Amino acid sequence: MKRYIKLFALSSLLTLGACSQDFLENEPYTDKVTENFYKTPSDAFEGLIAIYDVLQREAYGGPLLISEQASDDCFGGYGIADAQTDIEWDRFLYVSDKDMNKDVWSNAYLGIYRANILLENLGKVNWGSDTALKTRYEAEARFLRAHFHFTAAKMFGDIIPLDHTVTTSEFELPRQTPEVTYALIASDLKFAADNLGPENYSQAGNANYGRITKWAAEAYLARTFLFYTGTYGKEDLAGVVSKAEATAYINDAVNNSGHGLVADFANLWLAASFENFAGEDNTEMVWAVRFNGSGKGNWDLHEGNRFQVNIAPRGGSIGKYATGWGGATVNPKLVDSYEAGDTRKAASFIDYAGENLNFDPQAREQRQYTGYSWKKYCPITNAAGTAVVEANGGNFQIDNYQDYAIIRFSDVLLMAAELNLQSNPALAQADYDRVRDRAFKNTTHRKTVSLENIMKERQLELALEGLRYFDLIRQGMTVAKAAIDNNTGDSQFNVTFRTETQGWFPLPQSQIILSNGSITQNPGWN
């Protein structure tokens, strides 16, 4: 089977009389296929970009939005007449749409497929003497393959790890144990961490901003180590990376990456700072998915951040905040958990009453109104009250342009604190202090570092960034249920976390059917 890379529309290439046996035996003129494509480093670069391209599809929400709705940070939200799927993610139900999460699954495997295509063809490229470039492309591709595997594994538990493109005889492969999947993830990330150079692309205007670095790979190794060992009760990362090695990697990222904290937390988020916005190529961004507004309303392109419209205020722009669908309304319990003087509170959430914004939830048909919504990632208006994206000729639904931060340096510091907690408590304290000192802009709000305090700090620092739910899951079902269960007396906010699911989301029913019985539904979702 030929694997098509790109299709080109060519007209009048041949006349009707030109169809001969010679033509049938020639390479395709109109298609680039793997059999005739990978010859030059430029070809390999196109293949690499094709893998990165899948990242932009995460902007539809995917694990970020779904996991925040499932966590204790947010409810389902959206409009009163909207589909029930978001309520079901919030309440851990599986009623109206048996193909829930199909995009998460399909996007992850699209990324894995494209990564495997490139990795299998690197040896066909004429690299000349530039073998270092081949190693770099392999490292980036393997990092991305690990990322897409982890995206699926943290959502669905047991998945199908793929280190090659499957043949027709493998279309019904069964899911594997976590040890098999995470051994592949760990090997890929370790290769990336050990083979990428020390470059740091977080400088203004750097053409490579958004590309994988050694520091992103080291941080991602720590993230997967913490999730895997916590969730499955293991001592190491699938026999590939020990705790001592994971700690050494994260300490290297802290000490030698050149990344640091932006002085003011609010300046990380456009809607919180405006004129003082630090820019997306700031020193704190260890790795982010890049977006821009160049699509100008073209739904066939995926350049814009299509996630932002989901969480923006419903029913029209209000003040400096541009309009959206009102999804994932923020739990007041989260907002109330910030201490007085913590600058992250005002920078993270829109407080409609506190900011004197006249938001009428009934007129705007807002479901599960809490008085709070996302300030992080919220699109903004200009001085005339028009959404900036529309003023620039774009569509407010698909052309928002803010990058999606996957790893910030504050997360690196908190992972370092957690990994050093037992072996080097003084270092753990220092890393933990840096995050709290920035939050309060002083050193008088420090606390003694502990696992409980680190996990709480992660919730406050990384709220609405797609990490909270998975931090709960890796602490066990008792902790997750205690945090997520909600009964305020208002039934629209009632949430009961079902521990029989073990925290895994339901597999899309279409994949179960296509597997012809080799894949069965996750526990608790039948």
A few lines on this structure:
With 526 residues, the protein is mostly helical. It has helices spanning 21-25, 34-37, 41-55, 62-70, 85-91, 102-121, 131-156, 178-195, 214-232, 243-256, 270-273, 308-311, 332-336, 344-348, 388-391, 409-420, 425-440, 451-461, 468-473, 477-484, 509-514, and strands at 4-7, 31-33, 285-289, 349-351, 372-374, 404-408.
Structure description:
The protein is globular. The protein has helices at residues 21-25, 34-37, 41-55, 62-70, 85-91, 102-121, 131-156, 178-195, 214-232, 243-256, 270-273, 308-311, 332-336, 344-348, 388-391, 409-420, 425-440, 451-461, 468-473, 477-484, 509-514; strands at 4-7, 31-33, 285-289, 349-351, 372-374, 404-408. With 526 residues, it is mostly helical. Helix 3 (41-55) runs antiparallel to helix 6 (102-121). The two termini are 36 Å apart. The strands form 3 sheets. A two-stranded antiparallel sheet has the order 1-2. It is built from 21 helices and 6 strands.
Overall residue-averaged pLDDT value: 91
Oligomer: single chain
- Fraction of residues in β-strands: under 5%
Question: Main β-sheet: number of strands, strand sense, barrel status?
Answer: 2 strands, antiparallel
Number of strand segments = 6
Instruction: Enumerate the strands of the largest sheet in spatial order, edge to edge or round the barrel.
Output: 1-2
User: Helix amount, in percent?
Assistant: 40-55%
Query: Uncertain segments of ≥5 residues (pLDDT<50)?
Result: 1-30
* N-C termini distance: 36 Å
Q: Calculate Rg over CA atoms.
A: 24 Å
What's the order of the H and E elements? EHEHHHHHHHHHHEHHHEEHEHHHHHH
Shape category: globular
Count of discrete alpha- or pi-helical segments spanning 4 or more residues: 21
**Class per helix and strand makeup:** mainly alpha
